User: Which sequence fits this backbone?
């Protein structure tokens, strides 16, 4: 039998990850001393307190910590949950509809591709912006319009802009080019891809949208964490 201890925090996913592990034969210990490994959330602050045991956590690079977010299966499933949450935000926070809207997606990684697949039934006017020529070609072959980052400085008519690029790409000129009622949703990890201070100064409708899986679908997102932990254990990653 394998015992684990869950370090509770505000991440709702942990409750469901714990339940998933128990459903699959793992036993939750009452104290960390009795556990074979420690389960923590994403970006935990006190993981060093449990360094005597193998720790499973997200976005942590340290000895004896196994980062489940690095697994390809986790990243792919999490991307679709993030894209689903982004659509929910777009519907809830805009006065307009996604139907037949003019949509721009910055980047063409996992999250961007998931967004494209979700948005396609709503609108055929989807544009992808990326630096990588292969990504632009791939997006074009999928039937999407494509532009370069230099084109972002040109006045445009996008109703929704989703950024997935995790470095500054939407700055003064790009913000000024947006139409007045555009909804800009930044999905990129910290510090994001948008100049927040300038966006506020211009009155841009900006939403910083991180941690959407935990916010909109904590049960499924927690199960994804549980599956990733089990996969790492069965794959023999622990202890190497």
Assistant:
């Amino acid at each position: 039998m394998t015992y684990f201890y869950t370090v509770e925090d505000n991440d709702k996913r942990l409750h469901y990850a714990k339940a998933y592990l128990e459903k699959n034969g793992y036993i939750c210990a009452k104290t960390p001393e009795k556990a074979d490994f420690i389960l923590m959330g994403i970006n935990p602050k006190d993981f060093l307190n449990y360094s005597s045991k193998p720790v499973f956590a997200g976005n942590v690079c340290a000895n004896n910590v196994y980062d489940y977010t690095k697994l390809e299966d986790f990243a792919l499933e999490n991307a679709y949950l993030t894209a689903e949450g982004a659509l929910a935000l777009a519907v809830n926070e805009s006065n307009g509809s996604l139907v037949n809207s003019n949509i721009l997606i910055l980047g063409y990684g996992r999250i961007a591709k998931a967004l494209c697949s979700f948005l396609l039934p709503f609108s055929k006017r989807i544009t992808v912006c990326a630096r990588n020529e292969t990504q632009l070609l791939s997006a074009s072959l999928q039937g999407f319009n494509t532009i370069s980052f230099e084109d972002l400085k040109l006045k445009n008519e996008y109703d929704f802009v989703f950024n997935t690029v995790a470095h500054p790409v939407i700055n003064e000129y790009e913000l000024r080019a947006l139409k007045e009622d555009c909804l800009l949703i930044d999905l990129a990890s910290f510090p994001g891809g948008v100049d927040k201070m300038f966006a506020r100064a211009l009155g841009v409708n900006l939403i910083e949208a991180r941690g959407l899986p935990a916010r909109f679908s904590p049960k499924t997102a927690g199960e994804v964490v549980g599956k990733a932990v089990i996969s790492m254990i069965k794959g023999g990653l622990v202890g190497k």
In short: The first strand starts at residue 3 and ends at 6. Helices lie at 13-23, 72-93, 110-119, 133-141, 172-177, 196-202, 212-216, 218-234. The mean pLDDT is 94. DSSP finds eight helices and eleven strands in the chain.
